Amino acid sequence: MARKFVKAVCSVKNRHYGLDVDEYGGKYEVTNIIDITAEQAKLLPTQVRQDKFYSHSNLLPCSGDGSRLIGGSSYPMGKGGCNNGKFNAQCMYCKNFRIDYASSHVGGQYKKGDVVHLSQGQDIVIGEDEGALLEHLVIGAGWDISTRGSNMDVDSAIYLFSGDDIDQVIYFGNKESKDSAVRLHADNLTGDDSDTEGQDDEIIDIFLNKLDQRIDRLYIVFNIYQAKDRHQNLSSIRNMYFRVADPKSMSTLIDYKIGQTRSSDSGVIVASITRVDGGWSFKAMGKTLTVNYITELNQSSFR
Fold it and tell me: Are residues 89 and 122 in the same domain?
């Protein structure tokens, strides 16, 4: 039995934790929890990725709902002592407690000028030390269509969430959010532009400093237009990518190349951008889906 290290963070207080995790019969259980600093969190990697982590019997159960699922209960903030800053093992059960898969924070192991390459499931936080990026982000997206001369049209969209509810969808039929903070600048019908180095098929401007405070998550989505009606799917799409670019130079800062997808599906939830304490978290998702139109997604599509 090999012990693994997992890092976690309280999304409300931005406190960081280190977890010792052991495998018991295929289930990963936390056997110990310690406080770590933000600097240590930047340097230490999470060594195992699982959909669920549980607490071992040597740790306090969650008195909120009896569950031993880490970060999975509705245990209310404050019952575990976070209001006065004291450490308490029951923090693990609070709904604000999440496993941190970030390889590094910008400004940590990475220096300015580096490109951060994400793989599926990884995330990275842009914090207060990158103030310019917290004001204005440029998202570049691209893909190639394998079959030339086909009538395939790939659309992109940005879903804006307020809590658990979809607030707005920005797409070719609605290219700007109500507060003008999110703007979609193109609707490329062919994917040809990304064959030229430095050219994105579609560009999205996100002015984080103007974004309505109710909006706490954004999702970037690709989908083939009328995929079901036209009997088209992702088998004809290659070289899909998502990148965060410097708004002045357009040089790449964060890059995610979408790997192999299920060829029977029509689209991909590419990435999420989530408001966290002191910054925004970018997560590479790569979750596939099948819909006819890019506006047909609902809340359950993103779970």
Answer: no
Task: Using CB atoms within 10 Å of the CB of residue 294, give its burial: 0 to 12 exposed, 13 to 18 middle, 19+ buried.
Answer: buried
Is 111 part of a structural domain of the chain? no
Rounded CA gap, 212 and 273, in Å?
A: 14
One-letter amino acid for residue 110 of the chain? Y
Q: Is the Cβ–Cβ distance between 66 and 58 less than 8 Å?
A: no
The amino acid sitting at 287 is K
Same domain, 73 and 197: no
Residue ending a domain, choose from 32, 64, 99:
99
The CATH number linked to 175 is 2.60.60.30
Are the C-beta atoms of residues 115 and 253 closer than 8 Å to each other? yes
Integer Cα distance of 182 and 160 in angstroms: 9
Going by C-alpha positions, the residue among 93, 100, 142 that lies closest to residue 121 is 100
Write out pLDDT tens, residues 30-76.
988 888 887 777 767 777 777 788 888 888 767 666 778 888 776 66
Q: What confidence tens digit (pLDDT) does each residue in 9-29 have?
A: 887 777 888 899 988 877 889
* 65, 124: one domain: no
